[in-house]
Amino acid sequence: MQIIDGKKVASEIKNELKIQIDELKKSGKNVPGLVAILVGDNPASHIYVSSKSKACQEIGMRSVVEKLSSSISQNDLIELINKYNQDENYHGILVQLPLPKHIDEEKIIESISPQKDVDGFHPISVGNLLIGKDTFVSCTPAGIQELLKRYNINTQGKHVVVVGRSNIVGKPVANLLLQKNQYANAIVTVCHSAANDLSFYTRQADILIAAIGKAEMIKADMVKEGVVVIDVGINRIEDPSNKKGYKIVGDVSFDEVSKKASYITPVPGGVGPMTIAMLLNNTFKAYKKLGGWN
User: Fold this and answer.
1) pLDDT tens for residues 107-157?
2) How far apart are CA 82 and CA 76, in angstroms?
3) Which of 151, 156, 168, 200 has its C-alpha lying 20 to 30 A from 83's C-alpha?
4) How far is 216 from 191, CA to CA, in rounded Å?
5) Domain 139-273 architecture
6) Could you read off the pLDDT of 38-56 as tens digits, one per residue?
7) Model confidence pLDDT, tens digit, residues 227-264
8) Domain 28-133: which topology?
């Protein structure tokens, strides 16, 4: 069994981007820029946005965080997004979700220019992914594929079983690995809560991607020997032995399943760090597409 070290791979990606950005600075060129828009006081959202901003600074990418009151109107938020749609210094725009209930998330996502949709949530990005055109892929699925690539895990003709059908992970990763590309071209099954017997499907998986949001739901008897396991889950469970009173676990029972797996991502330190790394990568891609590379 080999651990898939997402922390290490994410660090490699950031270093690769930093080298390219340093070269841009040396030649006097504008550098990629990312704006993160944070609405309200959600503590988890503040942590996520802070981590993204810090990662930008580490590699020399321009970043700004727009912290807005939870009472901001939908129109005012769209107006701010439009301002950054027109701003040539910023190549990526992300609006941290969730948003307050009085704001329509779909309308906000649709107001972001598809050329700056580095989260890969815009319907145009999603549609392009579905039909196999070059596009921004949402960051967690892109990170999963990058881990498969960097560990040289063959996906062609393999049976990938995705547990979960969210718009952020389940659906896009299924579409991504279905494409006729390298580190894709797989046979993909998507499972969800309507399955009468989930283990019937998970036991068939050559590569299992767990993104269902239930702590340690996937047990050893639900997978076959030699399976590759990608655990997207981040769940907090009580742990009196820990100073914090809790610990973070995935959707997979790591201690059990790792004994049967050929490769497995840990939680934390697996898929999580890749999400921010791919956000930076998408921002650099947007920068090149918008002409900054010339």
Assistant:
1) 999 999 999 999 999 999 999 999 999 999 999 999 999 999 999 999 999
2) 10
3) 168
4) 16
5) 3-Layer(aba) Sandwich (3.40)
6) 999 999 899 999 999 999 9
7) 999 999 999 999 888 888 899 999 999 999 999 999 99
8) Rossmann fold (3.40.50)
Answer for the pair 119, 284: CB distance below 8 angstroms, yes or no. Answer: no
Could you tell me which residues come within 8 angstroms of residue 54 by beta carbon, excluding any fewer than 6 positions away? none
Residue 294 predicted with pLDDT over 60: no
Q: Where are the CATH 3.40.50.10860 domain residues in the chain?
A: 28-133
The CA-based angle 285-287-288, given to 5 degrees, is: 65
Degrees to nearest 5, angle at CA 206 with 155 and 183: 10
The pLDDT value recorded for residue 293 is 64
Cα 294 to the chain's mean position, in Å?
A: 28
Indicate which residues carry an active-site annotation: 52, 96, 119
* Bridge partner residues of 93 (DSSP): 35
pLDDT digits (tens, 9 = 90+) for 168-189: 999 999 999 999 999 999 999 9
pLDDT at 73: 98
Contact of 281 with 17, CB cutoff 8 Å: yes
* pLDDT tens per residue, range 189-219: 999 989 999 999 999 999 999 999 999 999 9
Question: What percent of the chain is modeled with pLDDT above 90?
Answer: 94
- Token pair listed for 225: 């020997």
Neighbours of 226 (CB within 10 A): 11
